[in-house]
Backbone:
């Protein structure tokens, strides 16, 4: 099989998923200006998966991340973080363009070129210092802008909180990312492991909130849903009176004059990753209001390669 034939065969499944999600938008039973239903009809299944993820997090991911923070100096951790973030820039570029954010797409392209050259393959974030900040976009957000309903809330083994729409978008983002697709399996697996450790290390501040929450499952679910909504609306979501009884309006249908939800500052749009509470997700520059059940602000927004973690100096799948 020729190289071009192999490339086409690898793209078939991601393209098929995109087509399926597009058809879902046309066949959805909800009005086209509604994009996110926040109900949890699969709660029994989700809680079982969450329990598995939580045990994996406490037994493996959290101890490894703790050792990583203690052993690796912060400057070195920042370099690894910037390198991984740079690998996700092609995903941000394409999704920004698909959402009609052409200026942002051009800025992301410039950021990727600057950091990949002057920044030594992304190990140094030079672009942020020349007014080209990191802006995270993913295919789940793109589908939301196209009017695709989110589908039910879903907890994925190891990766954590998601929805049907976001899970499909994550798969395409990871498999179609050109910076990862043509790497040898050895290097891709090493980067996956490094990404997971880096993401979990960035979420260490959430440990206390998760451990003290009355219902950690509900805490993670509420934080994820509000965070995704905040990111889909680029930090300016319209007023919503009941997150669990009504659907959210799509960005295109939201009134420009609609007041935004109060957003206390947290950390700072790489895709969910290691064990479940760890994968609570990452947010754009400022995160949304925390659910009433939470005792402190949730961590930031994250995506496979291309999502950010909390408490990073410059701030946002394998």
Residues:
């Amino acid at each position: 099989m020729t190289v071009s034939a192999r490339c086409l065969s690898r793209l078939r499944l991601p393209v098929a998923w995109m087509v399926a999600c597009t058809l879902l938008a046309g066949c959805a039973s909800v009005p086209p200006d509604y994009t996110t239903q926040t109900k949890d009809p699969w709660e029994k299944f989700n809680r079982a998966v969450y329990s598995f993820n939580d045990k994996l997090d406490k037994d493996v991911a959290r101890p490894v991340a703790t050792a990583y923070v203690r052993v690796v100096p912060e400057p070195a951790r920042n370099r690894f973080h910037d390198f991984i973030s740079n690998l996700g820039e092609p995903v941000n570029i394409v999704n920004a363009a698909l959402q009609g954010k052409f200026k942002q797409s051009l800025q992301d392209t410039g950021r990727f070129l600057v950091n990949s050259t002057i920044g030594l393959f992304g190990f140094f974030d030079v672009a942020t210092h020349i007014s080209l900040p990191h802006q995270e976009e993913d295919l789940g957000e793109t589908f939301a802008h196209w009017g695709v309903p989110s589908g039910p809330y879903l907890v994925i083994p190891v990766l954590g909180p998601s929805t049907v729409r976001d899970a499909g978008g994550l798969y395409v983002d990871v498999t179609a990312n050109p910076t990862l697709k043509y790497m040898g399996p050895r290097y891709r697996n090493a980067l996956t492991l490094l990404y997971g450790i880096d993401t979990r290390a960035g979420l260490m501040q959430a440990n206390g909130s998760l451990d003290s929450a009355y219902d950690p499952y509900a805490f993670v679910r509420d934080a994820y849903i509000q965070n995704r909504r905040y990111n889909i609306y680029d930090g300016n979501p319209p007023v919503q009176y009941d997150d669990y009884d009504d659907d959210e309006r799509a960005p295109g249908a939201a009134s420009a004059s609609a007041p935004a939800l109060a957003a206390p500052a947290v950390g700072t749009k790489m895709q969910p990753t290691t064990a479940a509470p760890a994968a609570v997700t990452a947010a754009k520059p400022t995160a949304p209001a925390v659910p009433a059940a939470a005792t402190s602000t949730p961590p930031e927004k994250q995506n496979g390669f291309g999502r950010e973690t909390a408490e990073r100096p410059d701030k946002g799948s394998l």
Observations:
- The longest strand covers residues 153-156.
- The mean pLDDT is 73.
- The first helix runs from residue 3 to 27.
- Strands lie at 34-36, 153-156, 160-163, 248-249.
